[in-house]
Design a protein that fits this description.
2 domains; Immunoglobulin-like; 22% strand; alpha+beta; three-stranded antiparallel β-sheet; 16 strands; 344 residues; single chain
């Protein structure tokens, strides 16, 4: 067992085997081991930051609890209680470590008080120190529809993705990063790409091919053949909306939107539909609806598509195209929130 694993295991056993008794009210911690949370009273929908100060190279175990303790351990009394809500373990770098956090706009969080403290172990000396403890209280806040403020997340419409590069627009972002985000090309429909079977695919191999196709209109439908870098398709507007949605998800997952949005802790692929779409699609994630769209546009799924497993057809081409359109518009240009989506 490595020294790191032994240290984590030993501290965990110390916590799990300790009795809950009111030993001391010493929550100041050891000199040089400082925990700060700013602010300590946080409105839902707003950020706060946790900062850790400890000697470089020591193993830090940051612990979260819903109760204040005290909890006696072999390494001294903790001023947080058991059971723990969670932990974070890392080796301390030369500089202080700060973790930015965001409290989701969920009214159920109001009134919660959390208690936080850390141990730091010197693996060479075999010593363990405690930080001071901190509390954080969650308070009411003014939250928008879906729990997002304009600017929290970013998406772009198919028209945006299809525009020429100018200044710092998303067309320039597309040109700069398409090859790294889609090393095998952007594939719509059959995930195997152009392979000659009865599940059809469209492949866009370059940023220029995206610009040439988008935006595209026409009646939503399915592909009737494999296509590489077309400028029109039999799927009409459905193909354009699916291409834009996949661009949004992939660029966001690759971190290419991080400079444009506030909530870089969230990814648009995980957001759930809650309004503005066919009722059967509410509760599904953006990525799940994109998966539905790929199956449908490939031509291998009978329409309308059964999405809830009851063997009854639920949604058609236009329903899925509309859902993708609503997603693409919801956080357009990182300056709006239409309330279509909510966090999981």
């Amino acid at each position: 067992m490595s020294a790191l694993r032994r240290a984590v295991y030993g501290i965990a056993m110390s916590l799990s085997c300790s009795a809950s008794a009111a030993l001391a009210d010493d929550c100041a911690g050891d000199p040089g081991y400082v925990l700060s949370i700013v602010p300590n009273q946080v409105m839902i929908g707003t950020p706060f930051s946790t900062t850790i100060q400890a000697p470089a190279g020591e193993l830090v175990i940051l612990m979260y609890s819903s109760t204040p303790g005290p909890t006696p351990t072999a390494y001294g009394t903790l001023c947080i209680g058991l059971p723990l809500l969670g932990t974070a373990v890392f080796v301390m770098p030369p500089e202080d470590v700060s973790f930015p956090h965001y409290v989701d706009c969920n009214s159920q969080y109001v009134g919660f008080t959390g208690h936080v403290q850390f141990f730091a172990a010197d693996l060479n000396q075999g010593t363990v120190h405690r930080s001071n403890s901190q509390t954080i209280s969650l308070e009411p806040g003014s939250c928008p529809a879906g729990g997002f403020f304009p600017g929290d997340l970013a998406t772009y419409t198919q028209g945006g993705w299809g525009q020429k590069c100018a200044g710092n627009n998303v067309g320039c972002l597309r040109n700069t990063h398409f090859a790294s985000v889609f090393p095998n090309g952007l594939i719509l429909g059959d995930e195997d790409g152009v392979d000659g079977d009865n599940a059809f695919a469209l492949v866009l191999t370059s940023a220029a091919a995206v610009e040439a196709l988008l935006p595209t209109g026409g009646k939503a439908g399915a592909f009737t053949a494999d296509l590489t870098n077309p400028t029109t398709t039999s799927a009409g507007v459905f193909a354009g909306q699916l291409a834009a949605a996949k661009l949004n998800v992939a660029f966001d997952a690759a971190g290419k939107f991080d400079a444009k949005k506030v909530r870089d802790d969230l990814k648009v692929a995980d957001m759930l539909y809650q309004a503005g779409v066919h009722l059967k699609l509410n509760g599904f994630s953006v990525l799940e609806v994109i998966d539905f769209a790929d199956l449908v546009i490939s031509g291998v799924v009978a329409m309308p598509m059964d999405v809830d497993g009851d063997t009854i057809g639920d949604v058609g081409f236009s329903d899925l195209s509309q859902a993708l359109d609503m997603f693409n518009n919801n956080f357009d240009n990182a300056n709006q929130n239409l309330g279509v989506l909510t966090s999981p």
